[in-house]
Amino acid sequence: MLTWAAAALLTGFSAAAQQGRDWTWRETTSPHFAVMHEMPWAPPGFVMNLERMHSRLRMDLGMFSPWMAKERLKLYLYKDSRSYLAGEFEPPTWSNGLALYQLKAVAVPDNPDRKSLMRVIRHETTHLLFEGFWREAGKEAPSWLNEGLAMMEEDEDPDRPERSLWFQNMVLAKTSSFMPLTRFFSMNPAKDMHDKTLVADWYVQAYSMVYFLYRQHQRLQFKSLCSELRDGKSVEQGLWLTYRYRDLPALQKAWLRWRGQADLRNKVEQAQNEAVSASAEEESKPKDKFAPSGSKFSAMKGFKSLRE
What we know:
15 helices, globular, six-stranded mixed sheet
C-alpha cells in the first residue's frame, strides 16, 4: 500500500492553466491539503509539516470547523512576495498571507525561513477555520478573539509557550500598557487605532486574554463563550454564563493575577537565556563565507520583527 507521501509523488502533481498568466499551478495533495505551488515541486518536507500542523489545529479548532476532518484545505504557495502581491487575490501590500474564506484556502508567498513561513500559515489557517464559525451565522468574529487566537496558534512549540515572542511580550509588559477591558473589547486596531505603540500593546493584550481564557480553562468553555457572543450576548453576559466571572473587573483581576505569576517570568527568562546560549553557540561555529552574517536571535528581538 502506498503512503500518502508516496502517492503524492506519483499522482499528486498536476498542472492547471491560470488564465492570463505565463505560468501554471502545480498541485501536491495529502490527506488534508491541496497545495497549489508555482515552483515545479513543493519545498522538501513542506507537506509533512502541514499535516503536523493540521493535527494540532484540529485538536484546538476542530470544534469550530468540524469539516476540516474530511475536507482538504487549499493552500496557494507563491514563489516569492512579488508574485504573491501580483497574484489574482490582490492582497494589500503589507500582507504576508491571506485567509480566503469562500475558497477554504490560504495564500502565502514562499519564504526561505521555513519557521517563519509555517508561523504565517498557522496564523492564517486559524483565521480561516475560526472565522468560518462566525460566518455560518452571518456574523464577524470580534477582533480580539480572532487575532488573539491566531497569534496563540503561531507558537511553534505549544508545550513551551515561553519560547514565543508573544508570550514573552505578554509576561514582560508593564501592566499599565494594557487597556481597561471595557475599552479593549470594543476596539478594532485596523479601524480605531493609529498609534503604533497602542496597536502593539493591543495585540499583546489580545494574545494574552485569549491564552488565559483558552489555555487556563477548559476548551469547551471557550467554545461556549464564542457561541454566546455569536448568538448576540454581550461579553459580560457570555463570561458569566461560561466562566462565571460576574463582570469585567472580576475577569481583569483574575487575568492580571495569572499573568503576574513569578513562575511565568522565570520560564520566560530561562527561555531567553537558552536562546542567547544557542545563538552564541551558533556564532562560534565556523562560518560559511556565503552565509548571512549576524545573530538570528538578535534579529528576532522586538515587537516590530515579531509582527513582520
